[in-house]
Amino acid sequence: MTTTTTAHDLGRRFHAALTSGDWPAIRLMLHEDATWTLPGDNTVSGTVVGADAVVERARKIASYGLSFELLHILVSRENMALSLHNTARRPDAILDEHLTTVCRLRDGRIADIETYLSDVPGMNAFFV
Predict the structure, then answer these.
(1) Using an 8 Å Cβ cutoff, are 108 and 6 in contact?
(2) Residue ranges of the alpha helices (H) in 49-92?
């Protein structure tokens, strides 16, 4: 299997686990020292370090009732990214953002995640 095929498969499995809330499956895709960085100034912003912290962040984001619509899985020579359209609604706030979650891979697992957002102020207002 080629590196790009492996990266594409990992992206597909990561998205499937995220949408189904399969936290143990996400944990298995991560290196112990994995990190995840999100922009903004809210309850899910900043950088977390460690596989357990990355899983906890995914669980926290999902707890807000987000719909994670997969638009594309993008691969480079060694890494992959998910292009998503995330939406959610609360009585006092609406989230409607496009994002790219870039995953740097090492030995077929995720070592580092960085998320790029289309609407950081909207994210700040939603994740209070």
Answers:
(1) yes
(2) 51-62
